[in-house]
Amino acid sequence: MSKKAVVLVSGGLDSATVLAMAKDQGYECFTLSFDYGQRHRAELQAAERVAQAMGAAQHKVVSLDLRTIGGSALTDDSISVPEGETSGIPVTYVPARNTVFLSIALGWAEVVGAQAIFIGVNAVDYSGYPDCRPEYIKAYQAMADLATKAGVEGRGVAIKTPLIELSKADIICHGHALHVDYALTVSCYQADDDGRACGKCDSCRLRRRGFLDAGVEDSTRYAG
């Protein structure tokens, strides 16, 4: 019986690398993206490109209107996306986003009979997000084991975080070795409708530095 995994794919660099890693480990991958009211749809288009290019068994987009609660520069247009260095938990943090996303992924994993969920959280270049830490994933795993039929029956779904202790350069090196086409991805918090990056936000800064440190050509398309 083939191994199955639900892989959260945002359209960005990290999740594309995670999908490649899951495939390399022999998983049949069911990719999951969220239309949650984020600033631009370019990342959803990128997620679909990545899923298709990497041969996902099925790609699903779930609609959630997180703009109804706001609280983030990604879901509230009145909050500006910061450009340059930030400290502490930035305004691009979307309240409880990974908890919401993982919960839906957990439900789909039970439905398709997946043994694992892959998510590209990172605790090194993680921009201060509390739901990207190892402690959070450990706690979520404990909850998932208690909250699901699969967990109660001893078939719990493993939460896989292969990037959690890697630098951005390390992530790019791993993806490059697995032939990830990073030109398909969009990482920018405020990309234009054509998916071109601003080159100024925190996500762009981390991405640009990662390619430089990895010694890998940066295929990112920048506006202007």
TrEMBL record:
ATP binds at residues 9-19. CDD domains: QueC-like. GO terms for biological process: tRNA queuosine(34) biosynthetic process. The keyword Transcription does not apply. Binds 1 zinc ion per subunit. It catalyses: 7-carboxy-7-carbaguanine + NH4(+) + 2 ATP = 7-cyano-7-carbaguanine + 2 AMP + 2 diphosphate + 2 H(+). Zn(2+) binds at residues 188, 198, 201, 204. Its cofactor is Zn(2+). Keywords: ATP-binding, Ligase, Metal-binding, Nucleotide-binding, Queuosine biosynthesis, Zinc. InterPro entries: QueC (IPR018317), Rossmann-like_a/b/a_fold (IPR014729). It is an enzyme of class 6 (ligase). Its EC number is 6.3.4.20. One of its GO terms (molecular function) is zinc ion binding. Pathway: Purine metabolism; 7-cyano-7-deazaguanine biosynthesis. SUPFAM superfamilies: Adenine nucleotide alpha hydrolases-like (SSF52402). PANTHER family: 7-CYANO-7-DEAZAGUANINE SYNTHASE (PTHR42914:SF1). Belongs to the QueC family. Catalyzes the ATP-dependent conversion of 7-carboxy-7-deazaguanine (CDG) to 7-cyano-7-deazaguanine (preQ(0)). This is 7-cyano-7-deazaguanine synthase. It comes from Teredinibacter turnerae (strain ATCC 39867 / T7901). The lineage of its organism: Bacteria, Pseudomonadati, Pseudomonadota, Gammaproteobacteria, Cellvibrionales.
